[in-house]
């Protein structure tokens, strides 16, 4: 079971606090952790922890901060293909602050920006399923066109999705996703505008909606079990990584979504970017 993830990898600096500081105020954090982050990278780590053979193609570069990304991915069984190995500038960095009492998080990030990243000369590896997050647009479009089966992480609208969605089997949207062609902000309008064979829309702790163009049951909702959330950072990425695994091993959409919900539930009940992986069964 081979999964290819194409998209963003960042250096995440994660601090846990008992309260968020106000303007011009400092607070002491309870803990500090550094890990690879970004939608594609977090999904890749999740998929590898669930037993898939995972390759992540992204841009890390030659800056010393990139070694933090490389080390974390290697430690968690993800094969890295760096599409910009000689890039001298720092990789994208995210400062993540998690509120200890609720698990809610705030993120300040500098993502890929306008960095132009193409396909490496050796091309893309074979995979049973490909996940793209829309970052690094040239790379994302190439991966989408080459995919046997394509899952798209559509957290928020990106213009490149207009080129990617026609190749998708499943598009997984967040509740904040707004397609510019949607008639209104409803899930039904979003699914119609995306126009993929299958559309999944997550709503945090509320039920996950799904829409399918084929079959007798064309839409439905799957409940999200109530859990005591202590850290919601990366929960959506964990959902997408688990959804990729479920689809790659041949599960139908509803079964794969239910599996992804369970995995995301494990993620939010454990603090820190990686400790939760030890609790996957």
Give the SSE layout:
Blueprint lengths: L1 E5 L3 E8 L13 E7 L1 H11 L3 E6 L7 H10 L2 E5 L10 E7 L5 E6 L18 E4 L4 H10 L3 E5 L6 H4 L5 E4 L13 H8 L3 E6 L2 E7 L6 E4 L12 H14 L4 H16 L13
Parallel strand pairs: 1-4, 1-8, 2-6, 4-5, 8-9, 9-10, 10-11
Antiparallel strand pairs: 2-3, 6-7, 11-12, 12-13
Helix pairs in contact: 1-6, 6-7
Protein name: Carbohydrate kinase
InterPro entries: Carboh/pur_kinase_PfkB_CS, Ketohexokinase-related, PfkB_dom, Ribo/fructo_kinase, Ribokinase-like
Keywords: Kinase, Transferase
Structure notes:
The chain has 281 residues and is an alpha/beta fold. The chain has one domain: UDP-N-acetylmuramoyl-L-alanine:D-glutamate ligase (3-Layer(aba) Sandwich), CATH 3.40.1190.20. Helices cover 26% and strands 26% of the residues. The protein is built from seven helices and 13 strands. It has helices spanning 39-49, 66-75, 137-146, 161-164, 187-194, 235-248, 253-268, and strands at residues 2-6, 10-17, 31-37, 53-58, 78-82, 93-99, 105-110, 129-132, 150-154, 170-173, 198-203, 206-212, 219-222. The strands form two sheets. It has a nine-stranded mixed β-sheet with strand order 5-4-1-8-9-10-11-12-13, with helices on both faces. A four-stranded mixed β-sheet has the order 3-2-6-7. Strand 8 (129-132), helix 3 (137-146) and strand 9 (150-154) form a beta-alpha-beta unit. The protein is globular, with a radius of gyration of 18 Å. The mean pLDDT is 93.
């Amino acid at each position: 079971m081979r999964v290819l993830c194409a998209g963003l990898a960042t250096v995440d600096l994660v601090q846990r606090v008992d309260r968020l500081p106000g303007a011009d105020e400092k607070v002491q954090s309870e803990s500090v952790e550094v890990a690879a982050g970004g939608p594609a990278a977090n999904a890749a780590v999740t998929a590898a922890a669930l037993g898939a053979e995972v390759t992540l193609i992204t841009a890390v570069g030659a800056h010393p901060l990139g070694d933090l990304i490389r080390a974390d991915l290697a430690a968690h069984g993800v094969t890295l293909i760096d599409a910009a190995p000689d890039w001298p500038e720092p990789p994208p960095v995210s400062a993540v602050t998690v509120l200890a009492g609720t698990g809610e998080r705030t993120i300040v990030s500098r993502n890929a920006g306008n960095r132009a990243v193409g396909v490496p000369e050796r091309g893309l590896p074979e995979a049973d399923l490909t996940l793209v997050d829309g970052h690094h647009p040239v790379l994302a479009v190439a991966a989408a066109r080459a995919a046997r089966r394509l899952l798209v992480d559509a957290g928020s609208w990106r213009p490149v999705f207009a080129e990617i969605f026609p190749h998708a089997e499943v598009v997984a949207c967040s509740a904040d996703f707004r397609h510019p062609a949607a008639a209104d902000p409803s899930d039904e309008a979003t699914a119609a505008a995306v126009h993929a064979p299958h559309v999944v829309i997550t709503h945090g702790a509320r039920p996950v909606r799904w829409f399918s163009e084929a079959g007798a049951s064309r839409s439905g909702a799957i409940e999200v079990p109530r859990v005591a959330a202590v850290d919601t950072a990366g929960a959506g990425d964990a959902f997408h990584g688990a959804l990729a695994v479920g689809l790659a091993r041949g599960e139908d959409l509803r079964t794969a979504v239910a599996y992804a919900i369970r995995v995301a539930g494990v993620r939010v009940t454990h603090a820190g970017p990686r400790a939760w992986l030890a609790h996957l069964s």
